[in-house]
Specification:
The chain is an alpha+beta fold and 97 residues long. Helices cover 31% and strands 16% of the residues. It has one domain: Rossmann fold (3-Layer(aba) Sandwich). It contains four helices and six strands, in the order βββααβαβαβ.
C-alpha cells in the first residue's frame, strides 16, 4: 500500500510544501503510525509550527509521533440525538491525553 499526501507518496512529501495537515480516521491511523516516514512527516509539521488537525482515530498518529505530550488533545463523542442541547454536546468533550 502506498501512502499518499495529496497524490504524492509520503516518501516524497515534505512538510515544507504544505500549509497544514489533516489526519483522517478509520483504519488509516494504524497504517500511518507503522510507517516511519509518515510519522516523521507529522513531526515535521509540529517542528515547523504548522496547523495540524486530526479526526476520528487520527490522534493515534500524533501519539506515535510523540507530539501530544504537554498538549491538550480532545475528542468528542457525537450524539445520536440531533435534538440534544448545546450544553449536552459540550459535556461530551473529553480529554484524550
Amino acid at each position: 500500500m502506498a501512502l499518499a499526501v495529496i497524490g504524492k507518496r509520503v516518501e516524497r512529501a515534505k512538510a515544507n510544501d504544505y500549509d497544514a495537515l489533516l489526519l483522517g480516521g478509520l483504519m488509516n491511523p494504524d497504517k500511518l503510525r507503522m510507517n516511519k516516514q509518515a510519522v516523521q512527516f507529522v513531526r515535521d509539521f509540529f517542528e515547523q509550527k504548522k496547523p495540524v488537525a486530526s479526526i476520528c482515530h487520527g490522534p493515534w498518529t500524533l501519539v506515535e509521533a510523540g507530539v501530544v505530550q504537554g498538549r491538550k488533545v480532545m475528542w468528542m463523542s457525537l450524539s445520536h440525538n440531533p435534538q440534544s442541547s448545546k450544553e449536552e454536546r459540550q459535556e461530551r468533550w473529553r480529554r484524550f491525553c
